[in-house]
């Protein structure tokens, strides 16, 4: 494996690897992605193998422009036009009906998930390769997503090439919105806040028809273990816990009256940007348990609470 700067030579090597049906890790504004030619069955299966990702979990396809996105879709809903105009390039993934002539990207449904990433290196790679790139986060399945090239190296030492574009600015995955029904449906809360998306499409239905205040309701997809550190993560309302064995790390936020440990911002966007790096640091410190203070039950914290909830799932 080699980590290279995303200069002309680095990009040339990356394109060569992608054209040879192999995979390249590259920076996006959300997290680092493990990219492969979305049209190559061989390349896509390499993503699943390296990540140990279950075959039922489909991949997001990254493209350089809206025309390339439309070419992957059977129909292009009006809402997709408006959302793309407003938020692409950016951390919003749209699920639309898949063009009939295309095979599924790792799963056998009739839809496809697409986005244009807002990262110069990702866009240059998409343009230089001329390929749509299927790219999940560049980590072993269920583990913590990588926000630096170093995180990728540690989780997936067998990746042939990593483009190092520095730390990811959003630090949390894209928001995934399903546009195949009458009302847009949230499939995964993420970087782009719902409030911002509603300004464009009006109402959004939440998973499990959860309440609009954003309190996440358990549903099979959302309680599944994911984004998890090696340490056992306990999501708690109160940090005074007894009966824990081994070293304990604390993850809290400013203004919560806690000192020491990992104190992240009390602003949900900034908290999200630091969350995965903080979990990596706590794992590196060798703690057996991470006590994570529950963030407020408001919609602004939806994506963070989703990730913490899944990191805590057994
Ligand atoms: P990841 O690649 O781990 O960031 O996750 C991709 C997310 O997009 C997962 O939540 C997938 O279930 C979702 N996704 C990808 N493709 C589709 C699709 N065709 N239909 C519904 N959800 C999708
Ligand atoms: Mg992932």
Automatic annotation (TrEMBL):
Keyword RNA-binding among record annotations: no
List of residues binding ATP: 53, 57, 111, 137, 145, 188, 227
Entry keywords, A to Z: ATP-binding, Cytoplasm, Nucleotide-binding, Nucleotidyltransferase, Transferase, tRNA processing
EC nos: 2.7.7.87
Enzyme superclass (EC): transferase
Domain of life: Bacteria
Principal location: cytoplasm
Keyword Transferase listed: yes
Subcellular location field: Cytoplasm
Catalysed transformations (reactions): L-threonine + hydrogencarbonate + ATP = L-threonylcarbamoyladenylate + diphosphate + H2O
Chain ranges of the YrdC-like domain: 8-192
Record-listed L-threonine binding positions: 30, 62, 115, 135, 174
GO biological process: regulation of translational fidelity; tRNA processing
A cellular-component GO term for this protein: cytoplasm
MF (Gene Ontology): ATP binding; double-stranded RNA binding; L-threonylcarbamoyladenylate synthase; tRNA binding
Function, in words: Required for the formation of a threonylcarbamoyl group on adenosine at position 37 (t(6)A37) in tRNAs that read codons beginning with adenine.
NCBIfam families in alphabetical order: L-threonylcarbamoyladenylate synthase (TIGR00057)
Protein family: Belongs to the SUA5 family.
Name of protein: Threonylcarbamoyl-AMP synthase
């Amino acid at each position: 494996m080699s980590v290279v700067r995303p200069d002309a030579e680095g990009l040339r090597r990356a394109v060569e690897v992608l054209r040879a049906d192999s995979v390249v890790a590259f920076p996006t504004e959300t997290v680092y992605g493990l990219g492969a030619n979305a049209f190559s069955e061989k390349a896509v299966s390499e993503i699943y193998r390296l990540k140990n990702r279950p075959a039922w979990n489909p991949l997001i396809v990254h493209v350089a422009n809206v025309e390339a996105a439309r070419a992957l879709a059977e129909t292009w809903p009006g809402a997709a036009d408006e959302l793309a105009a407003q938020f692409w390039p950016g951390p919003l993934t749209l699920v639309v009906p898949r063009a009939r002539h295309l095979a599924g990207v790792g799963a056998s449904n009739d839809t496809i998930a697409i986005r244009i990433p807002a990262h110069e290196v990702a866009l240059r790679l998409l343009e230089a390769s001329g390929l749509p790139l299927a790219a999940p986060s560049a980590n072993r399945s269920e583990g913590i997503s990588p926000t630096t090239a170093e995180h990728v190296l540690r989780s997936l030492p067998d990746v042939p090439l990593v483009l190092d574009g520095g730390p990811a600015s959003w630090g949390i995955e894209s928001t995934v919105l399903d546009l195949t029904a009458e009302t847009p449906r949230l499939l995964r809360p993420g970087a782009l806040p719902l409030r911002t998306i509603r300004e464009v499409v009006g109402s959004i239905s939440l998973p499990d028809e959860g309440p609009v205040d954003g309190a996440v309701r358990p549903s099979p997809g959302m309680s599944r273990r994911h984004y998890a550190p090696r340490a056992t993560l306990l999501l708690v309302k109160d940090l005074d816990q007894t009966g824990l064995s081994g070293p304990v790390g604390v993850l809290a936020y400013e203004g919560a009256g806690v000192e020491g440990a990992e104190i992240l911002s009390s602003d949900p966007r900034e908290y999200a940007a630091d969350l995965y790096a903080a979990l990596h640091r706590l794992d590196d410190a060798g703690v057996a348990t991470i006590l994570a203070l529950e963030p407020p039950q408001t919609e602004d914290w939806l994506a963070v609470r989703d990730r913490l909830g899944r990191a805590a799932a057994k």
